[in-house]
From TrEMBL:
<dbReference type="GO" id="GO:0005829">
    <property type="term" value="C:cytosol"/>
</dbReference>
<comment type="similarity">
    <text>Belongs to the eIF-2B alpha/beta/delta subunits family. MtnA subfamily.</text>
</comment>
<dbReference type="InterPro" id="IPR042529">
    <property type="entry name" value="IF_2B-like_C"/>
</dbReference>
<dbReference type="InterPro" id="IPR000649">
    <property type="entry name" value="IF-2B-related"/>
</dbReference>
<dbReference type="GO" id="GO:0005654">
    <property type="term" value="C:nucleoplasm"/>
</dbReference>
<keyword id="KW-0028">Amino-acid biosynthesis</keyword>
<dbReference type="InterPro" id="IPR011559">
    <property type="entry name" value="Initiation_fac_2B_a/b/d"/>
</dbReference>
<comment type="function">
    <text>Catalyzes the interconversion of methylthioribose-1-phosphate (MTR-1-P) into methylthioribulose-1-phosphate (MTRu-1-P).</text>
</comment>
<dbReference type="GO" id="GO:0046523">
    <property type="term" value="F:S-methyl-5-thioribose-1-phosphate isomerase activity"/>
</dbReference>
<keyword id="KW-0963">Cytoplasm</keyword>
<dbReference type="GO" id="GO:0042802">
    <property type="term" value="F:identical protein binding"/>
</dbReference>
<dbReference type="InterPro" id="IPR027363">
    <property type="entry name" value="M1Pi_N"/>
</dbReference>
<dbReference type="Pfam" id="PF01008">
    <property type="entry name" value="IF-2B"/>
</dbReference>
<keyword id="KW-0486">Methionine biosynthesis</keyword>
<keyword id="KW-0539">Nucleus</keyword>
<comment type="pathway">
    <text>Amino-acid biosynthesis; L-methionine biosynthesis via salvage pathway; L-methionine from S-methyl-5-thio-alpha-D-ribose 1-phosphate: step 1/6.</text>
</comment>
<feature type="site" description="Transition state stabilizer">
    <location>
        <position position="167"/>
    </location>
</feature>
Amino acid sequence: MSLEAIRYRRGSLSILNQLLLPEQLRYEPVDSVERAWEAIRAMEVRGAPAIALVGCLSLALELEAGAGPAGDAAELEAFVGERLRFLLTARPTAVNLGREAERLRAVVRRRAQSPGVTAQGLRESIIEHIEGLLEKDREDNRSIGAHGARHILQRVPEGGVTLLTHCNTGTLATAGYGTALGVVRALHEQGRLTRVFCTETRPYNQGSRLTAFELLHDRVPATLIADSAAAATMRDHGVQAVVVGADRVASNGDTANKIGTYQLAVAARHHGIPFYVAAPTSSCDPALPGGADIPIEERPGRELTHFQDLCLAPPGIDVWNPAFDVTPHDLITGGIVTEWGVFAPAELRQALAERGGAGAGPSPPKSSV
Ligand code: MRU
């Protein structure tokens, strides 16, 4: 059975409740935008692309069920805008839902202005646009995997490759295949992966609960390490590249990703190991000049002081629990792996501008690093 974070067919959406993994594999229905908002906020579904997909699909579901004004295209446009604005308040750091909302608003505006459009016609085109996102994400991830694997193999022309990754960027964080885990999978499919080390990713344990589960499920050779073992693993286990995902990439290449990513990049620099960020261009935010402007979500201290009901810290201790950190572009020494190719951070801005913003345009520019 292949794992999937999101199950959708017209009129029905369910998500794998990731709070219950690895113990239970339970799909739960999402029947409204409010329910999607809660699932995203509570991290039943997480990972930048999956958040965007579940948010948008919940809107498609409401539209299919007849929610919103029936008679007037302009009123329907306003309704969609209001639902998207609400969804965007669930979690602040990942930009993918914001980018998809932007694109969707543009589609709706164009369609709403075309002569003779009815509210029903508009409703149908919004649903179709959203449904197309699932397949697009899978395709983008395959491309990211292929570009990243090719780039790494240029540095390692013979034999197997040992990688290190962080958090969960796989099937469970996307529509399928994954971004950084897509690169891992592509190398494995080519018979060139020796092993991937995955960090446990405290405090939410996406690495031990989700990535380890996914890699074991798919029989990819993997070893779980404590976050604090990362530098020693790089030095003692021949790590040849670090590959992580992204929640938002600013136009200078600074990248927000799961807390702990920055220290991995520092350690990789010390050991001369190339550091890659693998993300679809929908994770890029060309409007942001640098990482200092990326909003960083802070989560409840309880995630650090407790494991489920088990108390791990003295009651009353102050806690700082940022969910993400920013890795400065100069530490992204391998490159930024997108569905278009691999870019040096300094080249990303131009690539995005040439393509008219993230995700637009048909012909990919060539890999440039
Ligand atoms: O808090 P999370 O689990 O949503 O954080 C996820 C990450 O940081 C991932 O690395 C990122 O979203 C990329 S997922 C393809």
